[in-house]
Write a structure and sequence with these properties.
597 residues; alpha+beta; Growth Hormone, Chain: A; seven-stranded antiparallel sheet; two-stranded antiparallel sheet; 17 helices; 15 strands; POT_fam
Length: 597
């Protein structure tokens, strides 16, 4: 989320001018915030609607295994947050935020439309002791049962805790397959896999232009020292979640009623509404997000648009490389693990490892002592930000699969929701909590009691761990089918939503206030780079929580429940430890922030 330049200073945001919206307000904030709020709401409607479907689309339509599906998901979300690093810079130097937002919206909408063309559902098969067998899927009540077809016989597949597989005929054991000798896969069209990956590549590209620059325009609404900034970003953040709330209900519903294409199509419509709000703004955004006043800018922008489209095949290559990655050899150590990472993983970790110290060295050499300390505080918080989003972003991968497999989705016995729709809990709680959190921070600030930004970050880390531990506790009360009540999952999302409001809107505002003005756009990019790394690591953790599936379904729900409980417990303990560490560091960090709240 990058501050955009102005005519007077092409590389720096104009933070000295008189705010033209000062006399016209919207709930006490600049009136332009209403349009930014609505624009982001519709853009997030499209994005989160698509994201709610993606993991199950990969496992149930293309029938990828857990490891491959969560790897693709992690790579996609990583690119979504990596591209703002470049998109913010290009807006700063050439396009201006407004043009970047409009271009990104168009590209993302086309990406969602491309996802509508998924082709026929993949056909599952299995290899048993090296011999291939077809797999049939039959509905038994509210469950699907997988069978190995052996001539005229149909043998039900049942996975065991020790990794062996039982093949049952009429409920009786017909054959036991040793661990490692049962391999599940599916026949899927290479053409439609390619189309799907191109769609994801376009969404990643367009998001890089949209996401950082819409937030930059929000930052420009407030003058330096305006204490409304944190509250304004919190209101803006509520808009994100209003959009995601409705999309995560409606897109999965359309996918169930009409097919996957309908869910993705609705996401595309939401994205185009977002574009129209900026394109047809009635001149209310004049002076905001404008390109630098250089004569060559008009010509350069077309090269940028063309270059962005040429990045799409590059991203496609990265996805293919990600899909073909292999696990490191046992005992190969950290070097073997790094060597086994796909190109995307090496690039992400390498870029982040170079960016953080590189910018700090530049700040030390080019800035004042106070500026360097403020940048050091910002970078420290950015590193801890990686941990938070690594855990929080299990929502679209392992938590969605947990909802599909180990959650009773009945609501008071009256009706049931789908697994993708469980993601709406987070958005609903954000909408409910955001106004109270905004009032809370403002009220505490007036009394001089508002927690510092590092303390808020520490609370967020402990909170996200608390949400997972709540679900782990609920797993003790799983029913005979190894499913927990939906309200335990809702409780996790409630705690996670509170934690999210402690870090995300505060983090966006923090970057605009702590960064040296002439690199605030780059710092917004690094903020999103940290989230990108977190998304990739989140995919890796989801892979650790992978469970063997046949045709997209687990054949033993006790195995999957045990795996999820183990992984969620382990990452919670790490988050609590790092959260406590950050609370201990909050005093020196607050000192380095030199009064920034």
């Amino acid at each position: 989320m990058v501050e955009s330049p102005t005519a007077d200073s092409p590389a720096e945001p104009d933070i000295t001018r008189v705010n033209p919206a000062a006399e016209k307000t919207w709930f006490g904030h600049p009136r332009q915030l209403a349009r930014m709020f609505t624009t982001e709401m519709w853009e997030r409607f499209g994005f989160y609607g698509m994201r709610a479907l993606l993991t199950l689309y990969l496992t149930q339509h293309f029938m990828f295994g857990d490891r491959q599906a969560t790897g693709i998901y992690g790579g996609f979300t990583a690119l979504v947050y990596l591209t703002p690093l470049v998109g913010g810079y290009l807006a700063d130097q050439f396009l201006g935020s407004k043009r970047a937002v409009k271009f990104g919206a168009i590209v993302m909408s086309l990406g969602y439309l491309i996802l509508c063309f998924g082709g026929p559902t993949a056909q599952p098969h299995a290899k048993i002791d090296g011999q291939r067998y077809e797999v049939s899927i039959e509905q038994a009540g509210d469950k699907q049962v997988r069978y190995v077809v052996d001539g005229t016989r149909k043998l039900e597949i049942k996975g065991n805790e020790d990794g062996t597989v039982d093949l049952l005929e009429n409920g009786q054991l017909a054959r036991k397959v040793a661990k490692g000798n049962f391999e599940s896969d599916a026949d899927r069209s290479p053409l439609y896999v390619m189309i799907m990956l191109i769609g994801l590549s376009m969404v990643s590209t367009g998001n890089g232009f949209f996401k950082p620059n819409i937030s930059t325009m929000v930052g420009e609404l407030y003058e330096v020292g305006d204490r409304r900034r944190d509250a304004g970003f919190t209101i803006f953040y509520m808009g994100i979640n209003i959009g995601s709330l409705f999309s995560q209900i409606l897109c999965p519903l359309l996918a169930v009623l009409f097919g996957w294409w309908a869910g993705f199509g609705l996401a595309a419509i939401g994205m185009m509404v977002s574009w129209s709000l900026i394109q047809f703004n009635g001149n209310t955004l004049a002076g905001y997000g404008e390109p630098p006043a250089r004569p060559e800018v008009e010509r350069q922008q077309w090269f940028i648009y063309a270059g962005a489209l040429l990045i799409v095949p590059v991203f496609y290559f990265l996805y293919v490389n990600l899909m073909n990655s292999v696990e490191p050899e046992p005992g190969s150590g950290i070097l073997g693990y790094i060597a086994s990472l796909p190109i995307m993983g090496k690039f992400l970790f390498g870029t982040f490892a170079l960016s953080v110290p590189g910018i700090l060295i530049w700040s030390f050499l080019s800035g004042s002592r106070q500026e360097f300390q403020m940048m050091l505080a910002a970078m420290t918080l950015i590193v801890f930000n990686v941990v938070f989003w690594t855990l929080f972003e299990q929502a679209g991968s392992s938590l969605t699969l947990f909802a599909d497999r180990n959650t009773d989705l009945s609501v008071f016995g009256l009706f049931s929701i789908t697994a993708p729709q469980t993601q709406f809990f987070n958005a609903a709680f954000i909408v409910l909590l955001a106004p109270f959190m905004s009032i809370l921070w403002t009220s505490l600030a007036k009394r001089g009691l508002e927690p510092s930004i590092p303390v808020k970050f520490g609370i967020a880390l402990i909170g996200v761990a608390g949400g997972f531990l709540l679900l782990v506790w609920g797993a003790q009360f799983a029913d005979a089918g190894f499913q927990v009540g939906i309200w335990w999952l809702a409780g996790l999302y409630f705690v996670h939503s509170f934690a999210e409001l402690c870090i995300s809107p505060v983090g966006l505002s923090m970057i605009t206030k702590l960064s040296i003005a002439r690199v605030v756009g780059l710092m917004m990019g690094v903020w999103f780079l940290s989230i990108s790394v977190a998304q990739y690591v989140a995919g890796m953790i989801a892979q650790v929580a992978s469970v063997e599936t046949v045709g997209g379904q687990v054949t033993n729900l006790k195995v999957s429940l045990d795996v999820y409980v183990h992984v969620f417990t382990l990452i919670s303990y790490w988050a609590i430890g790092l959260g406590v560490l950050l609370l201990l560091l909050s005093w020196p960090l607050k000192k380095w922030m030199h009064g920034v709240q």
